[in-house]
Design a protein that fits this description.
The chain has 282 residues and is α/β, with parallel strands linked by helices. It contains nine helices and 14 strands. It has an eight-stranded mixed beta sheet, with helices on both faces. A four-stranded mixed beta sheet has the order 7-6-9-10. A two-stranded antiparallel ribbon has the order 3-4. The longest helix is centred in the middle third of the chain and has 25 residues.
Length: 282
């Protein structure tokens, strides 16, 4: 079926002050859903065939933890962020940019899609610095170079981005070293730069829950910020919601959905009510 463009009247968007984008989706595939036999890859391929321009950011936390255990290293997290010392960083880089990235690219291409694997180090897509030494080599993004992503998209391929960045060249001893950048944070920063129609997080929960364990179907930026500040949101959901807040000045809305549900990404793109949608400021 031919794609119905998300932007039919871009001139009207300009007149009414809405966000105009030539990129449709930034999708974050959570590491917790990798290998769970979900249909996300097939959904991505189908959307690509319909003409959607998609940038994918993948995680891999569970696989990283498994490989750390093989090296007798114990994973440690603070507010959903992995503490990354030098031995852990070596594993993070190897697993994310090598094992997981290439497996996902291979799967997309084998199933009929077109994908190119890339990391945030390549082309200095994700530049950052170390904001908290207690977290080790965990980076905070200061700049996104979107040119390599746009070149890949214009060539008809889907960028598959592993969330490893590079330390800014500031003359310090850390200049140019790889940094572990949270995958959710990476997706939010990339979306902020690219200004896609929407940002989608595929995770292993039905959405953002209230205190009674019920999914909150819709919220605005103010509610999202209050949920973080009040402590209702904990653990790995903190960087997800934080990434949504980061992106939503340049993105119409962000969705947090259950990637384990069959065809959840396609349902989300078709605006079926699943998961939690956070509405942007425009």
């Amino acid at each position: 079926m031919a794609r119905i463009p998300l932007k039919i009247f871009p001139l009207l968007d300009l007149l009414y002050g809405e966000i105009v984008s030539d990129i449709d989706l930034v999708v974050k595939i959570g590491g917790s859903t990798l290998g769970s036999h979900d249909t996300t890859i097939r959904d991505l391929i189908e959307l690509q065939k319909q003409g959607y321009k998609i940038v994918v950011v993948h995680g891999g936390g569970n696989v990283i933890s498994d490989w750390m255990s093989k090296q007798n290293l114990s994973p440690l997290f603070i507010d959903g962020l992995r503490v990354t010392d030098r031995p852990s960083l070596d594993i993070v880089v190897a697993v994310l940019t090598g094992l997981i990235n290439k497996e996902m690219v291979s799967l997309v291409n084998r199933l009929g899609g077109k994908s190119v694997g890339i990391s945030g180090v390549d082309g200095q897509i994700l530049e950052g610095f170390i904001p908290n030494p207690d977290l080790g080599y965990v980076g905070q993004v200061t700049n996104v170079n979107d040119e390599p992503l746009r070149v890949i998209l214009e060539s008809g391929y889907m960028p598959m981005v592993s969330p490893v960045g590079v330390h800014v060249n500031d003359g310090s001893e850390n200049s140019g070293i790889p940094l572990n950048i949270n995958g959710d944070t990476s997706a939010g920063e990339i979306a902020k730069k690219l200004c896609p129609e929407r940002l989608v997080f595929l995770t292993d929960v039905p959405g953002i829950m209230d205190n009674n364990g019920r999914v909150i179907p819709r919220m605005n930026l103010s509610i999202a910020s209050n949920l973080i500040n009040s402590g209702v949101i904990k653990g790995g959901m903190i960087p997800k919601l934080g990434a949504c807040i980061t992106a939503l000045n340049n993105v119409k809305y962000a969705d947090i959905i259950d990637g384990r549900t069959p065809n959840s990404l396609m349902s989300c793109v078709n605006d079926e009510r699943i998961g939690t949608r956070i509405l942007g400021s425009k």
